[in-house]
Every structure is written in structure tokens, then in C-alpha cells.
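Question:
Now give any protein.
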Amino acid sequence: MLIKRAHFRVLAVLVLASLTLAMLAQTAATPAAAVAPVAIARPESIWPKYFPARDAWLSRPAADVGMDPAALAAAVEWAKARENDMPRDFSTQRQIFGRPLGPVPTTRALTNGLVLRHGYIVEEWGDTLAVDPTYSVAKSYLSTLLGLAIDRGLIASIEDLVATYVADTGPGNQHDSGYDSPHNAKITWAHHVTQTSEWDGELFGKVSTFIGTDEFGQGARKPRDLLEPGKFYEYNDVRVNRFSMSLMKVWKRPLPEVLKSEIMDKIGASDTWTYHGYSNSTIEFDGKPMTSVGGGTRWGGGLWISTRDHARLGLLMLRKGEWAGERILSEKWIESATTPKGKAPGYGYLWWLNAEARKPDHPFAWKGAPARSYAAQGAGGNTVWVDPEHDLVVVWRWHAGDAENEFYSRIVGAINPD
């Protein structure tokens, strides 16, 4: 019996060996063209979507996320040497922008920033927790609040007339005459966020014409004919501030409250950021005082925020409005907001776009960056740049104004080929 069992074991081994040899021979005989190729996953497909917790943001070595560590480090060293020349004590604020209406800090941080790939921090430099004014980056936050209002059904369409939402907003509220004139009555929400509204009037002591050096500093403009809404692009903070106040009336809440509860808290932002109005921008609405905020810090006030908190909004945009399984903004809105609109090349809904970067007259051309990249931009060199093609977010504060194209080119160049 023992002899039979041993004989059986030997026979089994011989059969298995024969099968193995046959398989190897078949593989060797198969023409190379007939062998199925091994699929190599792109970085986006092998990295699960990562969303940082409120008090913790994971880092990854550059090599682990498909980047050349030496090239990326060299790019950051280059960026560190490109400090903006705006005085750190804001002493030129009035000279540049005109009579202030709101607060301005006594100092600001030095240039700082971070680079995210696949949601992870791969480079970080300077004081990224410093809470500083971000100037017109705030406009992109206002755009986001408009998108949220449309998503929630508070505004039916971006093409709706603003006047129908704000002229009469219920018992106890004063009639809003801001859109009463035949000219202003034609303004839609889309006109406001493409900066083509041509809204005509005065708000918080500033006239929409931007005429007068004392009021507007180096940004003062010469008189011109007013065009029909939608026919002319002009970067104009008076008009953006009018849009902001109108949006506040739609939400029936101060916009900083909406931003905090509906977006920033949900994406794990800190409690250090603040959004300031002006000394004269508080109105009575629904029986209580509400402070309207502006689209920048041109006349003081505005959004004061850290680099890390900026990066969270950038990551929300990169993830097309989703955060850790929760839909915060619709993908439809983000796609629309970051697609060229209106009369300005490379401008969406208060976001700067690179879609026309290869045109020589583009004012914000990042020719070394993908065409689908986009950014929130503010004076003083404040930028939140999003590159969906490479799954990148870059926040760079207080940098030289002409340095972005080179920096983004270096970062993209540091990505290893697939």
C-alpha cells in the first residue's frame, strides 16, 4: 500500500511538470504580436481620490506621485526668490487703489505656497498658515456662491435678470433701486460674473465710472461711453460689489456665513479666515443688519485667508465639486464657470482661464501650462492655480506678477512621463 501511494505521488509530480513545460513551450511559440499587452495605469487611475481631514493634510514624496524630486525642488527654490514688491506694511495701498473703505492689516507674510498632486502636499514653503488679504481671488469665491445658489434653486438661471430677484425682497425691506434704470434693468447674473454688466451707479461712495484719482488711485479711468450690458468687458470692483450685495439678498444671509457653513466647513477649512466688509457696507435687510462684502481688497476689507485654506477650495474645484463623497457644487457649474465666457479672452465666471494662452494678446498666458488650467488671481501676486490634466493644485502667495508662467512650466516639467 505504501509503495502504491509513493508511486502515485511520483506520477502526480511528473504530470504537473509536463503541464508546466507545455505551457512554457506554448508561450515561447506564441508570436510577439499576439501576446496581450500589459496595461499600465495612468497616475489618475491608480491614485484614489484623497481629501484631507480638517486638522491633518498628508504629504507624499514627489517621486511617489510621479514627479522628479530634483526638478520640483528646483522649481520651488526658483519661486522662493520671486517675492512681490508690494510693501509688507501696505503703505502704498491708497496710492495704488484710492481712498480706503475697510480695514487693511499692518503686515503680511513673505512669499509662500504649496503644490498638491493627487490631493497630497508634495512641496510647501513659507508661512502657509498666515492669514492675509487675497485681493481679487475673492471674486472666484463669490462666483462659487453664485453657483451654489443656482444649484440650490435660489436662482433659476444665470441668464435671469438680477432685478427680478432683488428689487423687492419682501415686507419690511426697502425697494432696491440699483436696477431701476432702463439700462441696469437689462443686467443678468451672467453679465455680472463675466464683468460685462456695465452697471451704472454709485455704491458705498464709489462710482462705477472709476473717475477720480483720490477715489481710485492709479486705477482711475477716463470717461467713456456706456455700452449695453453684455457688450463690453471691464474689470470693475464697483460692479462686482453690486453683484455681491445682490447675491446676499438672494441668500438672505451675509455671504461670509454662507461661505463658511455651505463650503468652507464642509471641506475642512480652518476657523482663521475672515471676510471683511467696509465701514459703510452694512444695510438693514429682513429686519437685521447685514454687511455686504466686496470682490477684493482694493479699498480694504475683503477675504483674508491662509494658503492652506485656499488649497482646499482649489482641491474642491479640481474634484469637480465633490468632497469625500459629498456633492457640494455641481460638476455642471464648475465646468461652466471655467469655460470661456463673455467678451474677455481667457475669462469665465470670475475665474481666469488658460484656454486661449496660445494667443499672443492673452493678458494671463501660461504658455507652458495646459490649456484647460485655470486660476483665481489677486493683486500682490496671490494665485490659486488648478490643472485638471495633471491633477495639480498650486497656491502661490505674494509672488512677482510676471513669474507664473515660468513657475507653472517648471512644475509641469517636473512630472515624469507615463
